[in-house]
Structure formats: C-alpha cells, structure tokens
Design a protein that fits this description.
The chain is an alpha+beta fold and about 210 residues long. It folds into 3 domains: about 1-55, no CATH class; about 60-120, Nuclear Transport Factor 2, Chain: A, CATH 3.10.450; about 125-210, no CATH class. Helices cover about 50% and strands about 15% of the residues. It has a 3-stranded antiparallel β-sheet with strand order 1-2-3, with helices on one face.
Length: about 210
C-alpha cells in the first residue's frame, strides 16, 4: 500500500489508520515507521535483482524517457525499459528517476541521460515521404491528397456526415477507418489508406449528409 498508493511511512502512526487496522484485526501489531522503511527497502532490493536478471536475459530492450512534475512542483526525468520475457510477455521496468530542474528540451534531456538521442525511425521515415510528396509536381497526386484530406475532415467535423457513415458502415460490415484517419498530414499512409472498398460507403454517406467535400 505504501508503494502502490505513494503513502508516507508516517501512515502507520496516524490515529485513523491505527483505528482502521484495529477494527480489521485487534490482535495485529502495526510495524513502526522505521520497521516499515526497512521492509520496503528489502522488497525494493528483491524487485531490483529480479528485474536486472530479466533485463539481462532479454534479447532486445527498448528505452523510453518521460517527464513528470510532483505535487511539490518538482520536475523529474525517468527512464523506463521495455522488453519481452521468456514467457513471451511484455514487461516494463523503471530504471531510474532523477531531478530535472532544466527546461524540458531535447538537448537537456539527452545531456541528463548521457546517451545519444535517436529519433523515432517510423516518424522520421514518414517525414521523408511527406517532404518527397510535397515536392512532387504531379497535379494528380496532389489532387488525390487534398481530396483524401477533405473526406477525412468532413467526417471528423460534421456530426451528421459521421453518423450517416457509421450507419452505412454497419450495414456493410465495415470498420470506421475514414472518420478515424488523421487530418494533420503527419501520417500520410493512414490519411491515404481510404481503400477502394470504402468508396461506396463514402459516396453513400456524403450523398445523404447534405454536405459537400471541397
């Protein structure tokens, strides 16, 4: 409870907590604040050794960094390790937490971790494709991109059109791929992945929605 709920060790000294435990089991002796601290430290050491052994046995690991602010407005940086166990289950282990009083910039985060900053490959690849498409002087391609974005924008901004699309998709046993696609152009594949099979559903929805795709 101390760890899961982020409770202070002084909880065992609170009058209300003592009364609550006494109601549950009058014969139970609540550990002292010092004894509780030693118990938590022992569990921490055991969990740390177990996590280190699993990480060492993992074939691949993925590290993520996150920033958060405590209730006292103190900024922290934490590094988490993700890996697949021998039982083929996804596991996550917190490797460390440190104070981070600087501005939350990529340069400061990289310096705090003392590691090379490698951007997300999928995001970088998407930016390359996006830039290439932006520089492609093909009117037909640009027209398709604009039309696809207009269709997605329509179903994300018009309640009437979206409701009609949902009805049509349910009738045709389809997934709501059109209304959930992005419109900001950051993920072009999802934006343009309005398959041919969706054409009939989109046409049916827009025809009765009293709206126009520009």
């Amino acid at each position: 409870m101390i760890v899961l709920d982020s409770q202070p060790f002084s909880l065992v000294e609170d009058i209300g907590f003592k009364a609550f435990v006494s109601k549950l089991n009058p014969t139970y002796t609540i550990p002292t604040r010092k004894a509780l601290k030693l118990m938590v430290e022992k569990r921490y050491d055991e969990a740390k050794e177990k996590a280190m052994a699993e990480v060492q046995d993992a074939e691949y690991v993925s590290l993520t960094a996150d920033m958060w602010t405590s209730i006292n407005i103190d900024s922290y940086l934490e590094v988490t390790c993700h890996y697949i166990t021998k039982e083929r289950k996804l596991a996550t282990v917190l490797l460390g937490v440190t104070r981070f009083p600087q501005s939350h910039t990529a340069v400061n985060i990289k310096e705090a971790q003392r590691v090379c900053h490698i951007r997300c490959f999928a995001h970088t690849l998407n930016l390359v494709v996006k830039k290439a498409l932006d520089q492609t002087p093909t009117p037909e391609l640009q027209y398709i991109r604009l039309r696809a974005k207009s269709v997605v924008t329509l179903f994300r901004t018009s309640c009437k059109a979206k409701e009609k699309l949902c009805v049509v998709q349910e009738m045709m046993a389809a997934q709501a791929t059109v209304s959930s696609a992005p419109t900001d152009g950051e993920n072009l594949w999802d934006l343009l992945d309005i398959r041919v099979s969706e054409a009939q559903r989109v046409q049916s929805a827009t025809a009765d929605a009293a709206v126009e795709v520009k």
